[in-house]
Amino acid sequence: MTKSYLEKAKEKLISYQNISFVNQDAEKLDLGEKFDCITASYLPKYCTANVLIKNCLEQLNVGGKIILHDFIYPNNKLIQKLWNFHFKLLYLAGFFIPNWKQVFIDLPHLIRTTNWVKDYETSMNNYGLKIYKQNLTLGSSTIIVGTKVA
Ligand SMILES: C[S@@+](CC[C@H](N)C(=O)[O-])C[C@H]1O[C@@H](n2cnc3c(N)ncnc32)[C@H](O)[C@@H]1O
Fold it and tell me: If you measure from the C-alpha of residue 26 to the centroid of ligand 1, how many angstroms do you get, rounded to a whole number?
């Protein structure tokens, strides 16, 4: 993950004693133990579904859940118009926030072209996970939950 994000998380969560912060590649992450829940937001579209799911499964207890959330391009035509307008505004905002300018150019393209939901659904299916999926925020993001049943 981006190191500065991790530093920010450490800063914000300083009062919690029971959180560990590690900087590793999610596709190779190895914490040497098994968990009941593995979750990530805004990560799935950057990873290869089969690789991430296989790695998570190796570190998940039976009955445990993999919960993934990320942006999608909305299906509804009206929401698409709002979505496009929102990114036009962010594109303009990028002129005033130089660090974010390229993100506001690349992100809408990535969201339009990614097949992350289908890829993770296929992968979770292939690995025998029980799947629950729900669109959120006017269909502009999806949460997908895979439960390890055996
Ligand atoms: C859009 S940010 C989201 C950060 C955080 N999850 C949040 O919600 O604020 C995406 C993050 O995923 C990280 N990332 C991308 N591929 C990764 C990988 N294979 N392993 C770990 N982190 C990765 C990027 O470095 C970036 O920090």
Answer: 9
